[in-house]
Structure formats: structure tokens, C-alpha cells
């Protein structure tokens, strides 16, 4: 298995958003965006299906030691990529490391393309643009956002990076994005948890402050919470509001799939038979695109 990738106005302490606490802060944060929220069953179920697809693809990839070494993924860290992809529209871009399996799957990469030895053949742009010019997506994401700005295109870039990367090295890119109000959303997968939150709060907050734009802390394993923040941030960027930095806090002991299942149950939207049917369909699709079609499988 691959290695672990580890609103606030900038004038006040960043807030932490979570659907575990469905209080005023979450509701207000969602309502400040483009007016939409994941309140309908179709949206919520689609988020769950995307999480499940990522998980099953990870399980398939992990069966091959060569493929597992090719990608960075931690089971339970899928919510960030899923939420980011769900917040974007056609013509937008996810910018991430070529090793970020969850981001590739969320962007639309097939099992066959993920197994290809040539990354350039990956069909990750089938649904959303996927760009990876380097192992540091914040630099590439800033450049793409600048190109969109100069071309006067209402397109948005979400750049997904890890907390372990030198924050100092990212500051220039973020300052450029802030000063130019570029249409980019920076997302940090932060593996720090528990007592480690406080030491990492300051540098992330300073990154956003140095760029002159908001920094938000969110539960990175709560796909609905991340989606709400990402959707508002994308809406803001698309309408010339400039960048946002989203600090997604991750804990190895938490499972976004289990969390989302609980979330659906609480809203009477869970159906075990539906889940099993969806899982069966996804497994069949993954096997087919990987070149392995189970006997008796039929496709329309």
C-alpha cells in the first residue's frame, strides 16, 4: 500500500466544519455559497457512491504490489477527492500528484488507465480535467488558474496537496493567487489529529493570511462537510472572489464510508439492498475496465 498522505476570515481563527455537528456554523457556511446544499437524496447518495467507487478501486489496486507501489493512498482518506470532484463542473480541473489514486478515480480514471504504464494515457479527463505537472500541485494549480484568469474563462482549479510538503515553499504561489484573485481552491490533506491539531493550525492559517484570502478547517473524513466548503469556495472563485485554502484534518481511525452511511441512516435514506446492488455494479465495471469480466456478467 502506498504511503500516508498526510471560515473563517483570515482575520479570525479558522473554524472547523463537520456534519457531526449540524449546528448553525455548518448551516450558515453552506448558505453563504451559491444557495445550494446537499439536502436531496440524490446528491447525498451520489457522494456515497463516489466514496464506495474509490474504496473498491483501492482494494483492486492493492491486490497488485506493483500498482500499490505506484500510487499513494490511505484507505479512509477518500472523502477529500470525492468532495472536490463533486464541487466542480465541466471545464474545471483537479490538480494533484500523479500518485494520488483517490483524485484520479474521482476525476473519472478507469481501472484500465490506472494500470497503464504510461500516465499520459490515463483517461482521467473523461469527466473532469486532471492535471499533474509535478508532485507539488499547488504550483501547477496556480499556473492553470492564472491562465484561466487571463483568458477570462469562468473555470476553477482545485489543487490537492499534502500537509507534509514545505509550507514555506508554497507561499509564493499562494501570494500570487491571492493578489490576482485567481480562481483556485487549495486543499491540504492534513494527517495531523488529536493533540497535533494546534501545532499545525498556525502555519496553515499563516499560508492563507499571507495570500490574503480565507482559510477553512474541515473534517476531512466527512464528505458532506468537505463538499459544502468546497462548493462554496468554488462558487466564490468562479465569481472573481479569489482563492480559498481548505485544511482537511484526517484521522487514520475514522472511515468516511461508515460516517456517510450513518449520515444517510439518520435521514432515512439508507437501503442495504441498494448499497449491495451499487457495490456489485461498481465491482463489475472495475473488473471489465481492467480487462477481467466475470462469467455471466451482462452490460447494456
In short:
The chain has 300 residues and is α/β, with parallel strands linked by helices.
Give structural notes.
This protein has 300 residues and is of the alpha/beta class. It has one domain: Thiamin diphosphate (ThDP)-binding fold, Pyr/PP domains (Rossmann fold, 3-Layer(aba) Sandwich). The chain contains twelve helices and seven strands. It has helices at residues 24-31, 41-62, 65-70, 79-87, 101-107, 111-114, 137-150, 167-179, 197-211, 223-238, 256-266, 272-289; strands at residues 16-17, 93-95, 129-131, 157-162, 184-190, 215-219, 244-249. The protein has a seven-stranded parallel sheet, sandwiched between helices. Strand 4 (157-162), helix 8 (167-179) and strand 5 (184-190) form a beta-alpha-beta unit. Helix 8 packs parallel to helix 9. The chain is globular and about 50 Å long. The relative contact order is 0.18. The model is unreliable at 1-36, 119-127, 193-198 and 292-300 (pLDDT under 50).
Keywords:
Rossmann fold; 7 strands; disordered C terminus; seven-stranded parallel beta sheet; 300 residues; alpha/beta
